[in-house]
Design brief:
Layout (H helix, E strand, L loop, with lengths): L1 H16 L1 H9 L8 E2 L2 E2 L3 H11 L4 H6 L2 E4 L6 H14 L3 E4 L4 H14 L5 E4 L18 H4 L8 H16 L4 E2 L24 H16 L4 E7 L15 E2 L3 H6 L2 H9 L4 E4 L3 E2 L12 H11 L5 E4 L5 H4 L6 H9 L4 E2 L4 H13 L2 H21 L13 H18 L2 H11 L5 E8 L2 E9 L16 E2 L4 H15 L26 H5 L18 H10 L13 H14 L3 H13 L5 E2 L16 E2 L3 E2 L7 H5 L9 E3 L1 H12 L3 E2 L2 E2 L3 H7 L16 E2 L19 E5 L3 E6 L4 E7 L10 H4 L2 H13 L2
Parallel strand pairs: 3-4, 3-12, 4-5, 5-6, 6-7, 7-9, 8-10, 9-11
Antiparallel strand pairs: 1-2, 13-14, 13-25, 15-19, 16-19, 17-18, 20-21, 22-23, 23-24, 24-25
């Protein structure tokens, strides 16, 4: 007995000698499974030495037992658990499979099994939608069919699910998870597949199945495409009887086999063969016991080199016909590496051993598959022997919940109804919405037209909108933050230090911080465009305008008009040039610009704003009259962009100033500008950015669910951008609600922007 116990020590030594190989094997999706050539095994010397050292300790019966994965009994007490573990070890059973219970109990049993095993034991589970499918206290993802409904640009959610399922399996000491279901759900009367399948479209099943497999295997947990060669078009449950499939080979090749072929090409580690009577290939035997289907179709035709396992041999689709160990013997002869859930382990071992003693070819076959099993353990079990088995906690549950929130947000049509209602009531002609969660776009939709004319062009992702006051945060505030980051300005500096024309005015003592927080006693707005005719003349009018007598917060464009001049004087470049060079160009934002038509954007790609009595239909020129009179570039208005590009700017801020590996702003500067500096004066605003109300309201400028740490801005033309660090969330809404007239503001009265935002929080808060 002691010499078997020493195998773990030998394994650890050999593993340390071959660590670079093992680590590299875990990294690659295709390379992290045993590599088999047509001529046999091809491995490094340390790996072969380990396999040989273990194989040579095993009797014929124990080599057969290595091919068995047995069911862990339910509701064992400690005495029964100990007996089960010792019995499985005495047989040298290759692996176990869990089907129910709690995570704590499974972890305890796994620790005991691993401790008692003389040959490292493989642990598996059938968790198609996560560990919660089997363990009642673990998280369950929705069925695959729900993921199959998402738009293709969000297929990455399936990969993320695979990663998290794999991570939790690895924490629990699980090496195999029998997923993904790769069946095409082409028969609505199918009693067993249904919502377990991703879709009735073979291409969709192939893509999503492959993404899940890649995600799970990235965590060192083998994925299994099942149920080969396809269980989707059956009317019978193989748990109860054997389904019969009468399709032609041509049909099977284009429908059922297509996803399996794709997953094999993409490097799935395992394939589970179903219990199916596929008459086009084998009229005599079920697919799980058919060498024609396993060695012929799967191995030779599809070129699969990985691990093949039967579906549960204890299912009635097999046991109704094959009894007393004959199914296990047939499964081995057919080419399976593992035999899953033999009803009677000892009987199956005895039947196969008895046949092998009379059949040299069968003995060679047993040795061949036992070697494959041991090579698999070298790659999947040995690297985990030193890992602590832990139950996934609240952090893992939160990751799962976030993935499902992203899924539900995408599938919920409530946002569509809110926007459709707004369009039908002429609150907006159309809009763009982009939502990013955890750094990835989970919603990117366009609605309606550029105008209310039914013949007008549709809104597209590249439609440019006049951002109005979003200019304050997407241009001016960015620029001041950059200057502060570079030590060129400080927020407590007086504006007059950089703008000499303010020194002999009542604005001489206004600080940058006060101007950006809207508490500098500046007027909210004035029609300077009626008296000024260019940038400089309007700034002179701003400088000459009297301050308000009453202190406190009053939202004002004037401070940002002055700040744009500060940027120009400190940097030596106009605001538009400075932000283009410092942010937009290096970030690849080709649609974010002042004066878009001066930069080659045709008016047909720009959403028009108001029909003005003096200017006519405004399109491609800034709507705000003061910014227009200043030449189209000002600190308070003038910027045009798309929802996608505004979202990227906001995401950069959420990332702590980083985007695509480049640091644009320091996290400290972002924290400085996005927090309140005059909260004691009941001023909710940060520097440039608006903030949540101190007492959130459903009629506020932001959804009541938004956190106090959130920040953003709204715009007069019907725009909004908002970042919530507490939820890792970016929300952007762009519209031209001022078309054809700004006199009615139904968009705000209907709370369209904040209603949509509330829908997002509804799922993130679940």
């Amino acid at each position: 007995m002691n010499r078997f116990k020493n195998i773990a020590t030998v394994a650890a030594l050999l593993l340390s000698l071959s660590l670079p190989l093992a680590v590299e094997a875990q990294r690659g999706f295709r390379d992290n499974l045993p590599r088999f050539s047509a001529k046999g095994l091809s491995f490094s010397d340390p790996e072969v030495n380990w396999v040989d050292s273990v194989l040579n300790t095993l009797s014929l019966e124990q080599r057969i037992a290595q091919l068995m994965i047995v069911r862990v009994p339910l509701n064992m007490d400690d005495r029964q658990m100990l007996d089960f573990s010792r019995q499985m070890n005495s047989y040298r059973v290759g692996g176990v499979c869990f089907f129910a219970g709690t995570a704590d109990r499974q972890a305890e049993i796994t620790r005991r099994l691993r401790q008692d095993a003389a040959v490292p034991l493989l642990v598996s589970i059938d968790g198609e939608w996560g560990l919660g499918m089997r363990l009642k206290d673990m998280y369950s993802f929705p069925r695959n069919a729900r993921f199959g409904l998402v738009e293709p640009n969000l297929d990455s959610l399936v990969y993320e699910m695979g990663v998290e399922v794999g991570r939790q399996c690895r924490m629990m000491g699980i090496h195999f998870n029998y997923a993904p279901v790769t069946d095409v759900n082409s028969n609505p009367k199918n009693p067993v597949i249904g919502t377990r399948a991703y879709s009735n479209d073979p291409e969709r099943v192939a893509r999503l199945g492959s993404l899940f497999a890649k995600g799970q295997q990235s965590q060192g947990v083998m994925a299994f495409a099942k149920h080969f060669p396809g269980h989707g078009d059956t009317k019978v449950d193989s748990h109860l009887e054997l389904p019969v499939i009468n399709h032609s080979r041509e049909h099977l090749d284009s429908v059922e086999l297509l996803p399996f072929r794709r997953l094999v090409e993409d490097g799935v580690g395992g394939v589970m063969v179903g219990h199916l009577q596929v008459n086009a290939y084998d009229r005599e035997r079920p697919s799980s016991l058919s060498p024609v289907i396993i060695n012929g179709l799967l191995r030779n035709t599809l070129g699969f080199k990985g691990i093949v396992i039967t579906d549960g041999i204890d299912m009635k689709g097999i046991t109704n016909t094959y009894k007393d160990g004959t199914a296990e013997l047939a499964a081995l002869r057919a080419g399976n590496d593992f035999i899953l859930l033999p009803p009677d382990v000892k009987q199956a071992i005895d039947v196969i051993a008895s046949a092998a003693k009379q059949d040299e070819e069968l003995r060679h076959l047993i040795n061949y598959h036992c070697r494959r099993v041991l090579h698999t353990k070298y790659h999947y079990v040995l690297p985990t022997l030193g890992d602590e088995i832990t139950v996934p906690g609240s952090d893992n549950r939160r990751v799962c919940q976030d993935i499902v929130a992203d899924l539900n947000i995408n599938l919920d049509r409530t946002i569509d109804s809110i926007v459709d209602d707004a369009i039908s009531k002429h609150a907006i002609p159309g809009c763009q919405i982009v939502v990013m969660h955890r750094g990835k776009p989970i919603l990117d939709r366009c609605y309606g037209h550029l105008t209310y004319d039914s013949a007008a062009a549709n809104v597209t992702p590249t439609t440019l909108y006049d951002l109005a006051s979003l200019t304050k945060v997407n241009a001016t505030t960015l620029a001041v933050m950059k200057l502060a980051d570079n030590g060129k300005v400080k927020i407590d500096d007086k504006l007059s230090r950089y703008l000499p024309y303010l020194k002999n005015t009542d604005k001489a003592d206004i600080t940058i911080k006060q101007a950006m927080s809207h508490c500098a006693r500046l007027k909210a707005f004035d029609a300077y465009w009626k008296r000024g005719h260019d940038y400089d003349s309007i700034l002179r009018l701003v400088a000459a305008s009297p301050l308000n007598d009453k202190p406190g917060m009053l939202y004002s464009d004037l401070g940002f008009m002055l700040l744009s001049d500060l940027v120009k004087r400190v940097s030596g470049k106009p605001l538009d040039v400075f932000v283009r060079e410092q942010f937009y160009q290096p970030m690849g934002l080709t649609n974010t610009t002042f004066r878009p038509m001066n930069h080659g954007v045709a008016s047909k790609f720009i959403a028009p704003t108001e029909v003005d009595s003096l200017r006519g239909l405004i399109c491609g020129e800034v709507h705000d009259p003061n910014a227009y009179a200043m030449g189209g570039v000002s600190g308070h208005a003038g910027l045009f962009s798309t929802a996608e590009e505004v979202a990227l700017i906001m995401q950069m801020l959420l990332n702590g100033g980083s985007y695509n590996g480049k640091q644009y702003l320091s996290p400290e500067t972002i924290e400085l500008f996005t927090r309140r500096h005059f909260a004691s004066d009941s001023n909710r605003r940060a520097l440039g950015f608006d903030k949540q109300l101190f007492n959130p309201s459903k009629n506020g400028q932001v959804a009541p669910e938004a956190s106090q740490n959130s920040f953003g801005h709204t715009g007069f033309t019907g725009t909004m951008c908002w970042v919530d660090p507490d939820y890792d969330l970016v929300y952007v809404f762009l519209s031209n609600r001022v078309h054809p007239s700004s006199s009615s503001n139904l968009l705000s009265q209907m709370n369209v922007r904040t209603q949509i935002q509330s829908v997002l929080y509804k799922y993130l808060n679940k």
